Amino acid sequence: MASTTNGVSTTNGTSPKIILYTNHACPWAHRAHITLKELNLPYEEVIIDLDRPREEWYLKINPRGLVPSIKFSNGHLTDEIITESAIVSHFLADSFPTPTFFPASHSTPTAPLTRARIAFFVDAWFSKVHPLFMTAVQQATTSEHEQEETATKIVAAIRKEIEPLLQDARPYFGGSETMTLAEALTGPFVLRMKAYGKAGLVHGALVQGLETVPRFRSWVDRVTSQESVTYIWDEEKMISRTKARIEKGRGGGK
Prior knowledge:
Elements: E1 2-5, E2 8-11, E3 17-22, H1 27-38, E4 44-47, H2 56-61, E5 69-73, E6 80-83, H3 85-95, H4 111-138, H5 144-162, H6 181-198, H7 204-210, H8 214-223, H9 227-230, H10 235-249
Parallel strand pairs: 3-4
Antiparallel strand pairs: 1-2, 3-5, 5-6
């Protein structure tokens, strides 16, 4: 049974041992960082260099060579490996459920619905908005018209798919006063959307268009101000790396 001892989440009084294999520049790994922070779980960190071929020792942990991965022990489980960002985050949230972040499925009569609503929100973001945003970032070397067209599509998708799902945000998803798993799984990406817009890495029509979706804009501002979202975020470094990739795409580098 999950509980809290001296502010640290435990299972039957045993604090878990978690090793997180990560890279701070990876938005997918960022999801695990947010979840760990929100659940107040202690962990050790191993940084994986994503700019070079993975070393053999890491491929034995995760044959795909991706981050994040965790090695998890809690007195019942020993050195179990869990991979893929959504699976890692769900595993941790299910292992240490809280009424607000992600309730245990049978903790209350409404808990299954809360979990379903969170899952739908995350699916809406990644199926309807995220692919368009990735296109917008990649289009930095294309025509003004193409960039503006994609930016307009992103705003339209947010207005149709995301804005209505935030109608009861208080200020977080589902009326929660604190972060939920919905924010943990989407936070790294809305953080980048906001930062890239501010830095001019995406078309200005996106920045202007987000002013027309006030619930989303307010929610993004709240999410991106949370310590759990920002504590590994180096905005200057990320913007510099992204600009370098764009310049390389323009033929300015090799």
